[in-house]
Amino acid sequence: MPQLLRVQCFNVSRDGFGTGEGQSLERPFGHADPTPLFSWRAATASFVYRTEPGGSRGLDDYLTRDAECNIGAEIMGRNKFGPQRGPWENHDWQGWWGDNPPFHTPVFVLTHHVRPSFTLADTTFHFLDASPSEALAQAKQAADGRDVRLGGGVATIREFLEADLVDTMHIAVAPVDLERGERLWDSPDELLDRFHLESVPSSSGVTHLLFWRR
Questions:
Q1: Which of 29, 33, 85, 120 is buried deepest, with most CB atoms within 10 A?
Q2: Whether this model's pTM surpasses 0.90
Q3: What backbone phi and psi angles, to 5 degrees, belong to 174?
Q4: Which residues contact 140 (CB under 8 A, 6 or more apart)?
């Protein structure tokens, strides 16, 4: 089977924004409250940060579990790794996820300012100044036959879409408007020239959009 580049469980608002304006260390999503975007996933039995038994089953839980299935590497933009801009001033800061990041694979962070790789638990972060196709080639090699997940943020997903490298996408649309920030699209119909699309509403209030190549 070919290795796929997959966007999984990426959250956007009803008006198409994946994050708000004014990202900072204290507010990774800027002015936006991330709770309405992520609450559907946090409520599932399979949520990665769940520490107690329970949680919902059904569609939301299935898609949460599917996000981890057959993933061998991840690509993300620098803004998903952290809020810093320009040259790195502090190599001691190692991302928002603590000592045990939820990725459990090699992670390739796209940046114009590279820094040495480092490992936390079973996740190794590599920093690349590379084109989308170059980054994908390295990630596929590291994935050892499994798929590569494109983790975001918005600008990175748009860049890989423009390079026509994305094979499948799962976008969860929350019933909230952010009004400003980084926008993934004006309408998902913009992608219908290249992708099939199925829209599946959930009892949690989000609508799951599933894209796959034509």
A1: 29
A2: yes
A3: -90, 150
A4: 3, 73, 148
Helix ranges restricted to H, the chain: 35-42, 59-66, 78-81, 132-143, 154-162
* Token pair for 114: 């590279």
pLDDT tens-digit series, residues 156-177 = 999 999 999 999 999 999 999 9
Specify the CATH class of 5-19+30-82+102-115+125-213 in words.
alpha beta
Given a contact cutoff of 8 angstroms between Cβ atoms, the answer to whether 108 and 139 are in contact is yes
Q: How far is the C-alpha of 212 from the C-alpha of 214, rounded, in Å?
A: 7
Which residues does 70 contact at the CB level (< 8 Å), separation at least 6?
146, 147
Q: Where are the domains of the chain?
A: 5-19+30-82+102-115+125-213
Nearest-angstrom CA–CA distance, 132 and 164: 10
Question: What is the DSSP track for 68-103?
Answer: TTTEEEEEEEHHHH-S--SS-S-TT---SSTTS-S-
pLDDT in tens, 74-132: 999 999 998 888 998 888 889 888 899 999 999 999 999 999 999 999 999 999 999 99
